[in-house]
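# step 3/5: fold
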Amino acid sequence: MLGRLDDRVAIVTGAGRGIGAGIARVFAAAGARVMVVTRTASHGQATVERIGQAGGTAALCAVDIGERDNVERAVAETAERWGRIDIMVHNAAAFLFGRVEEYSEDDLETVLSVNLKACFRLSKAVIPYFQEQGGGRLLFTSSTNGPRVVLPGTSYYAASKGGINNFIKAAAVELARDGITVNGVEPGYIHTAAMDAMSDPERRARMAEHIPAGYIGEPEDIAHCMLYLVSDEARYITGQTICVDGGATLPPRGA
C-alpha cells in the first residue's frame, strides 16, 4: 500500500499539539513507531495515549528541543527503545511577535535555537543511524512566512524559516549518496490550538475568505504531505519544500 511505514521508527518534535500531533498520529496510523518529542509532558502524553487508543505505537520524550543536550537525549532514547531510527521530523518551533528594534538577545536565541539550530543538531545526531542502515528521511516543517511571504512583527521567525529551506537544499546534496533524503513542508494557515488562542471564530472566518480553497487547513493536511515525503514512493525527491496552504500564496481570486 502507498505510504506505509511498517517497522519504521520516527522522531517527531513539537508533537504535543497542533501540526506535530497530527504528524505523529498519521505516521503511527501508517505503521510507524513514533517518539513524541515535546516540551510539555501533558500535551505529549495526550498524543501518545490517542495513538495507543487507535492501535498505534508511541512513546514520550518530554524535553525542550532548543537545548543541545536534549536533542541528543531524544535521539538516544529513541534508539535505545526501538533499536533504530528511520525518520526524523523537526516540527517544533518558537514564534514571537515584535518589531525588529524590540527584540532582545534572549528572544533571538530562543527562536533560532528551536527553529534553526535544532535542524543541525537533530540531523547530526540521527545521520549515523541512517548511514548504518543504508538510508533515512530528514523532514522539516518550514513555513510560507519567510520563504514566500512576510508578516510584520515576525522577522526572527521568518529568517529562521528561510534558513531552514536553505539548510534543506545543502544537506540534501551532501547526503544524497547515503540514501538520505532531505525535504520540507511549508504550511500556510492551519487550524491549531495556537491559532484559537490568537483569534476568534469571526477573525478566522475573515482569514478563510482570503484563501482560494475557502477554508483554513487542518494539521492532517500537513501530515499527509509529510507521510508521502517519508515514504518509499518519494525516494527520488530530495532538497525540496512543498507549500501546503490552500493556495493562499497565489495571486488573489479575480486578480
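# step 4/5: annotate
The beta strands are 9-13, 33-38, 57-62, 87-90, 136-141, 180-187, 240-244.
# step 5/5: archive (pending)
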